[in-house]
Automatic annotation (TrEMBL):
Name recorded for this polypeptide: DNA kinase/phosphatase Pnk1
Keywords carried by this UniProt record: Kinase, Transferase
InterPro entries named among the record's database cross-references: HAD-like_sf, HAD-SF_hydro_IIIA, HAD_sf, P-loop_NTPase, PNK3P, Polynucleotide_phosphatase
Gene Ontology MF: a single term: ATP-dependent polydeoxyribonucleotide 5'-hydroxyl-kinase activity
Organism: Aulographum hederae CBS 113979
Amino acid sequence: MPEAHPPSLKRRNSDDGSISPPPVKRKQQSTTTSKAVANFFTPVSKKAPEKISWRVVKDSLLIGKYDDPKDGSASGPTSSKTKVAAFDFDSTLIKTASGNRFGRDATDWQWWHGSIPQKLRAMSKDGYIIAIISNQAGISLKPNPKSIKSDQKRLADFKTKVSAVFTQLDLPVSIYAATTRDEYRKPRPGMWREFLEDQDLEIDDRLDLSESIFVGDAGGRPAEGGSVKDFSCSDRDFAANVGLKYHTPEEFFLGESPKPFIRDFDPSEHTSTATAPLDSNPLVFAKTNDLDIVMFCGSPGAGKSSFYWKHLQELGYERVNQDLLKTRDKCIKAATRFLEQGVPVVIDNTNAEPEIRAVWIQLARKFDIPIRCVHFTASAKLCEHNDAVRSLNVSSMNPEKRTMLPKVAFTSFTSRYKEPALTEGFEDIVKVDFIFEGTPDQKDIWCKYWI
């Protein structure tokens, strides 16, 4: 009986003679150039210095600069003013090669469209300064012992990806990457201001805004046909804030016609109140009792504290605020102390639900005095906008120097909110719609897009 042999591991010839590996193992097209491969194997001592330099501003803004934009490399026509072509990064200049929403690593990228490198080189040659303005929430520039390894990897991957993109472009270009929810995050104008300062364009009217553009994918476009809804309108709002002409990538690189867009929040819808003269508002609150409690009800950012300073402080009311005192028990003790001294008191908290409001109604009953409610009606989006304006403009619009609230502060209030009713025990309820009050300069700040 012949000896049995194990099956041969040698690949058998296919019927069609092909010896290609299965499709899942076939090599995907790479964005790595032969120049980059050669550079990898070059000894460190013989490598040319890196053309990209990095710096960090306020542990928040990451700036990368490829060569010096003033090195005279642009050989096209010049003018007395400077033109700028600014772009978002992800889903505008590049996209993932894997098809995933977020890149897996530093090599998972490809050009959003094959014409982009040639287009940017032509614009640079035509005298444009090329800049990238990008939100990068996945990067952390602040040391965190609990996540330092993953933070370092994400930062290193991002720098490696940017370096590869810039190397392929090989033209003077800078990137500004906002990593936190602060003054630099689009649509806020912080990154643009930093760019203008770096380029000496913030003075003497050196920037040609009429010829400058910004291109980004966050344009507020709704889902249409097979297209997906834009995740936000932040790129369009950013361009409006800084005065640049806005284009989507499809419009700018592919020549498509503009499509309709929707903003979740538009300050211009509130300009009818924002433009009212400061002395045109009717008296919305009058003191009717020698001693009482006035309880505010409204979202963070609805204008409660400003209302107190403008209308109730001058009437002799003392203010009790949990943001300052930190706990409700301390607020109750402070209010009790004022009332014992015969001083009327304002409860300047959100007081979203009946159960919390009942605490103050019970305190009024203890002293056998009336309790009145001032109900602030501003929507959550309007309040979030107000909070951003306040916290990011400390010198001109934030006398108490409050820091920005997390988004959950507004969503939490909305989920807990129940409209106050007279049946709860209030003497009356005064409704207050938001009315912007400030100088023309403050109004100009308020009317920009901040969220």
